[in-house]
Write a structure and sequence with these properties.
Layout: H1 3-32, H2 41-70, H3 75-94, H4 100-121
């Protein structure tokens, strides 16, 4: 296996990890729903199940950020890839029933996608400045 194909394999795997984290967070947010007042017990259980998906996606996002640092990507790419895990995870822990999770996802998902696009645009090469 050549160096270029190894580099692309690592880049594609890393990008899929970032996208998988965003899918898990998005599914968890959609499943957890939001409530103005404390929901009834059945909706609380559904919200807790959605929160598990959110926390799994946040763990993947933070793992992708650590891997990005190990791959020697640019610092802003590493920060942007870890933002969904940090922001959405914080919002889900702080208030599991309100709109903070949605707002954190709206802010952090485009930044994570920008980080992935930068790495793909750079053809998977290490770009630490």
């Amino acid at each position: 296996m050549s160096e270029a194909s190894r580099r692309w394999t690592g880049t594609i795997t890393w990008a899929l990890l970032v996208l998988a984290s965003m899918v898990l967070i998005g599914y968890g947010i959609a499943r957890a729903n939001w409530h103005i007042w404390l929901p009834n017990p059945a909706d609380q259980e559904e919200s807790w199940i959605g929160s598990r998906y959110i926390f799994a996606g946040c763990a993947l996002s933070l793992a992708a950020a650590v891997w990005s640092g190990a791959r020697e990507n640019r610092l802003w790419v590493t920060i942007c890839v870890g933002l969904p895990g940090a922001l959405v995870g914080w919002a889900a822990l702080d208030s599991p029933y309100d709109l903070k999770r949605y707002l954190a996802a709206v802010v952090s998902f485009p930044m994570a996608l920008a980080g992935v696009a930068e790495v793909i645009r750079g053809r998977g090469r290490r770009q630490r400045d």
